[in-house]
Amino acid sequence: MSRFVKRLSAVALAAIALTSAQAAEIAVSSVTASSTFFTYNVNNLINGNGLVGTDHTGAWENKWLLDGVTTGTVTFDLGSLFKVGSSTVWNYGPGCCGDGRSTKDLGVSVSTDGVNFSSSGNFVLTQPTTDPFPGQSLALNDVNARFVRFSINSNYGDATYSGLSEVKFYGTAVPEAETYAYALFGLGVVGVALRRKAIAA
Description:
Layout: H1 3-17, E1 24-26, E2 30-33, E3 51-52, E4 55-56, E5 64-65, E6 72-91, E7 105-111, E8 118-124, E9 133-134, E10 136-152, E11 163-173, H2 177-200
Antiparallel strand pairs: 1-11, 2-6, 3-4, 4-9, 5-11, 6-10, 6-11, 7-8, 7-10
Helix pairs in contact: 1-2
């Protein structure tokens, strides 16, 4: 096999390998909420503050709350298109002001453009009872998304607020269409070159 053919093979295989990469934590680009209680910060959901290992410390300074309502939405921008396999959610939990603020019924929807969203599942989050407390894994089944929206539909009894502490997503980047085209072209060229070599032999 010639050096040229070897290089094309390497490029094509590397491009294809992107589609089968191991799932890893996704660095969320930004997060917005339908409302936020004024002493809290929605960025606490993605900045890792309050996490010690796999547990959250429960300190209110590292959490997020809706502003005077028990239902609302939080939208995460992953920055680019990913095949999202799962999410780990640390509920509001104990540590400050009543664990009745913990989210109970959570709807998850996804979008590739930030405008049109489709449902990716409905989940019941557990109510943490210890401080610190662990996260809960949600299966999102390798859905293609750039934007993930959480719809908080109920809590564990607080009449005024619902909240969360931290959210992480895991998945693999989805290569752009040109990458696929380049990989297929490269494999095609390799195939032609090998065929010609076989005929010449």
